[in-house]
Amino acid sequence: MTLLLRFIRLSVCILCVSSAAVAGTEKILPAPAVEPLELRVAVSSDGHAAYFVRLLEESLKSIHQPYRLHYVKDVPARRMWWMLNKGDINLFYGMQSKEKDSNEQIVRVRNALTNGLIGQRVFLIRQADTEPFARVHSVGDLKRTKMIAGFGAGWGDAKVWRKTGLPLYEHTGPWGTIYAMVAAGNRHVDYLPRGVIEVIEEARLHPELAVEQNLVVDYRADFAFYLAASSARYRPIIERALRDAEASGLKARLIDEAFGADIKALGLDRRTRLHLAATPD
Predict the structure, then answer these.
(1) Residue 239 domain-assigned?
(2) What is the pLDDT of residues 180-199, one digit of tens each?
(3) Close Cβ partners of 256 (under 8 Å, ≥ 6 residues apart)
(4) Residues 6+ apart with CB under 8 A from 153
(5) pTM score, two decimals?
(6) To 10 degrees, what angle do helices 235-248 and 50-62 make?
(7) Range of the domain at 228
């Protein structure tokens, strides 16, 4: 009996040693590598793209998604959209519209990038025109001033003004020349509506113009990222990253860091708010 017990114990020990040896030879396989997003992004050097690029990068980092960004800079907006359609770039941001959304060559990333702030508009005007705008208390009053808004050709804002019946001019040349046209006072353009996230910085760059102090015009609009159709597989990843940024408060923080001080300086609560029912679609 004693010999039998010793044999059993010895067998168990051998089995344990063998199991340990086998276990020691097992390989722990690394987790599969996550494919980095290869993004060719159109941006401008005037600072307008800074928030959108930062939101994209920080959101992807927050979900630990590798990416590589390649910038295409300072191409006119119309050409950037053409390049996106052709797949020469694969990501751009712009005003969301039904026209873009129905284009089979591009894919909208479903997220309102400014939380509606771009649809709140304050005017850049000539200092001499302060008084006419100060007397405006309704959309009808704004129409009666016969002041003409300036826009770049094809802008969604121009569609809003046209649908509302407000006088406007669409400039087919480089849109940046509209600032000088407003300042000149003899080019049939009286004011330039700009988003509340843009207008203060643009006033700094164009001291010949003034920020109008009485009005804020609002309508339903926002920017969205658009992908080339060839990169449509990136959409669910970027959408998840942006949702995570909203849930964590990251997006709100980036908006505040980029625009909070300027928006506060505009004093939106004390302004007469003109709501336009039209949209950029």
Answers:
(1) yes
(2) 999 999 888 999 999 999 99
(3) none
(4) 78, 170, 171, 172, 175
(5) 0.83
(6) 90
(7) 37-116+222-248
